[in-house]
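Quick check before the chapter quiz. The format below is the same one you will see on the exam, so make sure you can read both the input and the output lines.
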Amino acid sequence: MNTIIQLIAKTHKGLVREGNEDNFIVTENISNPDWILPKEDYKNPPQGSVLAVADGMGGLNAGEVASKAAVEAIKEYFSKLPSASGNETKILSLIKNAVLQAHRSVLKTAGKDPQLQDMGTTLIVGWVIDEKIYISWSGDSRCYYFRKPEGLQQLSKDHSYVQTLVDEGKITADQAFYHPQSNIVLQSLGDNERPPVPDTAMLPLVTGDIILLCSDGLNGMLTNPEIETIIRDNQDDLRLCCDKLVDAANEAGGGDNITVVLAKVIQGQSPSTNDKPQRFDGTKKRRKFRRLLFTLAALLLLAVSFTVYSMWHCCTPPTPKGPVIHQEPKAQEQKPHTPKPPKPAPAKPIDSLKAGDPAKDTIRLHVEKDSTHKLH
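Here is the expected output.
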């Protein structure tokens, strides 16, 4: 089925700012040399159509220069793209790279003039292809979609300080709208020290869907319910709807530049269970990658430490516990010399004993006793 789109866009400087630092760019066909706002509904081509909004920031006219450099980079990038139809992963990668290419373009432009050194811009890009819209963004410019019966839903997620407070449960989304620091963005194009980490999202397009891209000059002046009411009441007249949104933002104070891009799906998919949006958080992926690197580094350090310890422990003799006392070997004890008693003189034969010798008489006495015993 061919997707048929109606496209309307408008920008206004608001009631407070002297100039308009917002920029937008649209095309019904990325292959066209001239990117202009189509006057009639169009059949979306195989290469797709693109819409983008940039909200510049910086002193003097630097914000306007930054946002213009960003949208011109988007045109240049998509004009050179080959077909990516049918490959969802490739499409998401390409649109994310488009935002990064715009960032490099802003840096290059700033490098040519010292007065532009601090300029930057938000950027949100939508690519309608294969009956879906793919978006990528950096900063707090937003993408909404209006669908019956759900009403208005925010497809993008701000890279802002108050959004982190909402994510952490410290404030509600309603309180974020009135927060005094709601204008602080955490990433943008043109910041050389903190390069942007674009997020991406995808939405299947259903007949009757209305896509809204805007700068914070709209959603900073009107709450989401107020924006929804205007779209719901004027959904059949897209041009009038666009005018009503800008007028309402000015009536609410017009404190910032206001840019609105609306795309209505005249013909698209039928509602189904597969028409839900999907968001891909690039910041979380980078945090997970950093945690993985940190874990690997810690494990590597632990392994090296263990190896060094093992080598040292094996090659170094053990250190004795306590003081070492060197003792001379003890001399063998000399037992006191006790002179051996003299050996008794060998007994003399009886015949050799002289008469009157006591020994001879004793022996003889014994012999006589023995002889007497035998006679009996």
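If your answer matched, good. The chain has nine helices and 13 strands.
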